[in-house]
Amino acid sequence: MTSIKISGVRFISPWYVNNGGLNRKGALEMQVYMDIVLRAFVAMIILLLIAKILGKQTLSNLTFHDFVTGIILGSIAANLAFNKQLHSSYMILALIVVTVTSFILSVIALKSRKMRSWISGSPTVLIEDGKILEQNMKKVRYSLDSLDQALREKEIFNLEVVEYAVLEDNGMVSVLKKQEYQYVTRKDLKLLSVPQSFPVELIMDGIVLADNLKDNSLTHEWLENELRRKGKQISDVFYGVRGTQQQLIFDYYEDGIKKPIDKE
After folding, report:
1. What is d(CA 170, CA 63) in angstroms, rounded to the nearest whole number?
2. What is the DSSP string of 18-79?
3. Do residues 234 and 208 make contact, with C-beta atoms less than 8 angstroms apart?
4. Rg of the chain's alpha carbons, rounded to an integer?
5. CB 109 within 8 A of CB 64
6. Using CA atoms, how far apart are residues 30 and 100, in angstroms rounded to an integer?
7. For 195-219, what is each residue's pLDDT tens digit?
């Protein structure tokens, strides 16, 4: 007998303590904690691999298909991490099945327009020729408040500015302004185009990115000389980049702002 219960209070016998009963209990608890840690780690790694397999579109454009896939994967991963009543191998198998199914649906959606419309949804026109299409909004259960918010996010506060507004598969609203409200381009003004190139990061977090310098035929000495012209040195720079028109942009540790806004 390892313990005696008197008036609801359980007394552990010295024999149980002396024979390592409590030690065994502590070891079992530690094993449970380690098991949870391991399962959570495995779940995280598997989800990262799945996200890599399914691609960036799943992260950036959350369609119907991606939304359902995300919820299922999250639920299974949570059970894998914390539900000890379910065997981990079953959860891993379920994750693999959902991932393969999602990948197959993505391939089908790419090859079939009809299936793509069913799997991922299709765009819905909310405004046409400056007129709100009430029936389309009711069909997708999209409110006027949501439409107003989406337009404000596009810096549009007057409905008369809008020619077309389309609710995309991922829930975002795309807007085409009327011609008289569109921005003028260099082509409209018949100005000569300026050659552009992809920005090249030179310094990040105060560290020179040697590979970026080498890949763009730039040298450490060239960078030092450019900074010296500005009266600075590499140790002064927090972030440095060569812009789209070959211009050099540097952000220094010492910004010279005496009272920064939102300092805390």
Report:
1. 5
2. HTTHHHHHHHHHHHHHHHHHHHHHHHHHHHHHHHHHH-THHHHS--HHHHHHHHHHHHHHHH
3. yes
4. 30
5. no
6. 35
7. 888 899 999 988 999 999 999 999 9
